[in-house]
Amino acid sequence: MGDVVYIDVLVLENFFMNFLLLYILKRICKHNANIWKIAIAALIGALYIIFIFSPDFNFMYTLLMKFMMSLIMIVIAFTPNKIKDLIRIVILFYIEAFITGGSILAIFYLTRNEINITGGAIITNLSSGYMIAGILIAILFVKLGFDYFENHYRTEGNKVDMQIVLEDKKCSITALIDTGNTLKDPVSNVPVIVAYLKSVLELFPEELKEYILKDYNYETLTQKIISSSLKSRIRIIPFRALGTENGILIAIRADMAVVKYKNKNNIVFEPIIALYDKPISVDGDYEALAYPEILK
Q1: Among the three residues 123, 141, 156, which one is the final residue of a domain in this structure?
Q2: Domain contains 143
Q3: How many CA atoms lie within 13 A of 103 on its CB side?
């Protein structure tokens, strides 16, 4: 004799599962969806499972109808105003659902329990412990994964190519537009670009290149630069950072910087380039930090 399936229990379990999926999706999307709308959408999705017990409603469990039900839940919960927003939320919903479902099943399979499938839905004695463990694992993977991709694409979208010109010398670098870069030249109040010293090596006269490549300490390099042919272009930039209360960066005034961003070239005249003796990016994705106004 088969296991007895209680519809009310099944609906309740599916309601909580749907609610958690939609709530996590709300957090991932950083959406201001109303919690009651999420609850209504979760309930509608949970009631949908009743159709699997009636042979007259087999068509309700086709792939198309399942997809339509997920769309209905998302529209009720999030009410996206644009098609692209709807597509984005749907994609994230299915990624999240697959990870969550896969996590629950993986844990369940490891216990060597049997799984009964009816109408494409899992009908089994799946305790709440499995669901909670699976959801926690899914949240961890989703959180880590989306944080990584969000940070990656945010960084990629904020990178610009820049060519710096100083007299007859030029160098090309990649800069990250950093909203936290508030450094300014204290004399002219001009915003400052912070660049890795070795990435702008071509701007320096030959006698300075030797010292830079030999990794002399920053104080020695500062004295060499101040006493070089660049002395009329020198600026001293005070800064504060974690662990550094009264830091000083030496900077040079270049003639021009050409910033390439979204197929446009912005020209900045007499940019101030602060020289930092350590790589700006650990991964080497960019060599400088620029201020947001550089795109205007």
Answers
A1: 156
A2: yes
A3: 20
Same structural domain, 169 and 148: no
Q: Which of 73, 64, 61 is nearest to 25 (CA)?
A: 73
In this structure, what token pair is assigned to residue 155? Answer: 């960084």
Q: Which two tokens stand for residue 124?
A: 């089994």
Dump pLDDT digits (tens) for 126-136. Answer: 555 666 666 66
Residue-range definition of the domain harbouring residue 192: 158-295
Give 48 or 162, the one with higher predicted confidence.
Answer: 162
Interval 141-152: pLDDT, tens: 666 666 666 555
Is residue 46 packed enough to be buried (19+ CB in 10 Å), middle (13-18) or exposed (0-12)?
Answer: buried
110 and 170, same structural domain?
no
Distances (CA, A) of 171 to 101, 121, 199: 52, 61, 8
Nearest to 41 by CA among 14, 3, 8, 7: 14
Helix (H, G, I), strand (E, B) or coil at 14: helix
**CA-CA distance, 182 to 126, in Å (whole number)?**
55
